[in-house]
Amino acid sequence: MLGRLWKIIDEKLESWLIIGSYGYLVFIILIEIIRRYAIGASSQWGEMTVRYAFVFLVYLATAHIARSRDHIRIDLVPKLVTDRTRLWLYLYFDFLHLVLVALTVYYSVKIVALQIRNEVLMTGLDINMAVAHVVLPIGFSLLGLRVVQRSTEMIRQYRSTGTVSINGEIQNV
């Protein structure tokens, strides 16, 4: 039961969060448009929360596409090399990706901690700015998890079939 629940969360987490974040973004923008044109006033909190919801949406989408290597890339070199070389090349890319994730999470956690310690508030809201900036380490941690999952699946595929697909998806051989 717990394994099945984890599998559903693993497969659907980003999709659910993307839908929720995008729905919030659309709803608040709609409310702000109505307020601006019907009442003649808008709120600062709406603009601020939508801005950070959009940033969170970008990080979620990045993690969502990272697992299947569907992001924009140049595939000329991977198409020209053998499967073994492609495996090592992709593992090297994933390692660099994880270095970027580790650095981003490390420094963003330091910034969030500094904001909490100094009680930095959002413009127009009495909420600590750390609430908005915590999406950076969360989003990049999720991205790192997906990169590790992608590498693990790629190694498993290479061991079982001897091939590594260009786009990162499992090939049926």
Descriptive overview:
The chain is an all-alpha fold and 173 residues long. The chain has one domain (2-161). It is 77% helix and 0% strand. The protein contains 6 helices and no strands. Helix 1 (2-39) runs antiparallel to helix 2 (44-66) and helix 4 (83-118) runs antiparallel to helix 6.
Calculate the terminal CA-CA distance, rounded to whole Å: 31 Å
Report helical residue fraction: over 70%
Overall average residue pLDDT = 86
Number of alpha- plus pi-helical segments: 6
Largest sheet geometry: none
The ordered string of helix (H) and strand (E) elements is: HHHHHH
Number of strands: 0
Strand content: under 5%
Number of domains: 1
Q: Helix/strand-derived class?
A: mainly alpha
Topology summary:
Blueprint: H1 2-39, H2 44-66, H3 76-80, H4 83-118, H5 129-133, H6 135-161
From the structure above, extract its key features.
173 residues, mainly alpha, 0% strand
Summary, kept brief:
This protein is mainly α and 173 residues long. 77% of the residues lie in helices and 0% in strands.
